[in-house]
């Protein structure tokens, strides 16, 4: 048996009951935090930054500090040096104010020396071409050697060694005490210096031979004023009294000893009448007397060389 609801008519379908739609879920909003004071925020940021670990760190040890200090000093010095170099490259800065000469000078004048160095000293010591200055001075015939000494900031000292002549070398040159030949003339010494010459420039050997010959003739009162060698190697010497002695190319010492004996035995008393003595004989020498001398007629015709045997 079907029970019908009250009020429902038979044969009529029931109306669907409308249910209210479900309400949408309401989101709860998070409570709004109040902003902290500025000082507190800054403290929080500082705390967080301190808590963060840095990507890398450098510990300045004493060694690193020393290296940095040295580097800084180096850079300062480098900069100063570059500035100083630029400043000194100007020839008008720090000009040479004083030139001091040292050394004995007897044949050169101060005016002559100043003229030689003037083109080089119109600058400072940094730009001074010392090498060229030395070459210019040493190119002068009477200058044997030169050395320069710079005294900063503006003084130049020149040590100069002048040639010291002891003999003439031919007609237009001189010989110094070291046997070195240099160009020069010295008329005032014409009657004082001997004349030495060889076509082969061996001044030292000739000077030594001159001294040796003078020693061999010591005590005879004879002074050699000329000692020469010709192209064939033959030696000849001349005394101040004017006599010429021919030594030849060999055995010069032996021949000079023979002459010494003959001079002491026979020739000393009549040496003023002799014009030439030729020592190129084996056991003696030949004498050429002056024309007009009293001995010429006794030994042969005037001006003719005749041998005199005086032992070997």
From TrEMBL:
Principal cellular location given in the protein's record: membrane
Location of the Cell division protein FtsQ/DivIB C-terminal domain: 167-280
GO biological process: cell septum assembly; FtsZ-dependent cytokinesis
Keywords on record: Cell cycle, Cell division, Cell inner membrane, Cell membrane, Membrane, Transmembrane, Transmembrane helix
Record field: transmembrane: 64-84
Subcellular location: Cell inner membrane
Pfam family membership, one: FtsQ_DivIB_C
Protein role: Essential cell division protein. May link together the upstream cell division proteins, which are predominantly cytoplasmic, with the downstream cell division proteins, which are predominantly periplasmic. May control correct divisome assembly.
Family the UniProt entry places it in: Belongs to the FtsQ/DivIB family. FtsQ subfamily.
Record's subunit section: Part of a complex composed of FtsB, FtsL and FtsQ.
HAMAP family: FtsQ_subfam
Name this protein carries in UniProt: Cell division protein FtsQ
Gene it is expressed from: ftsQ
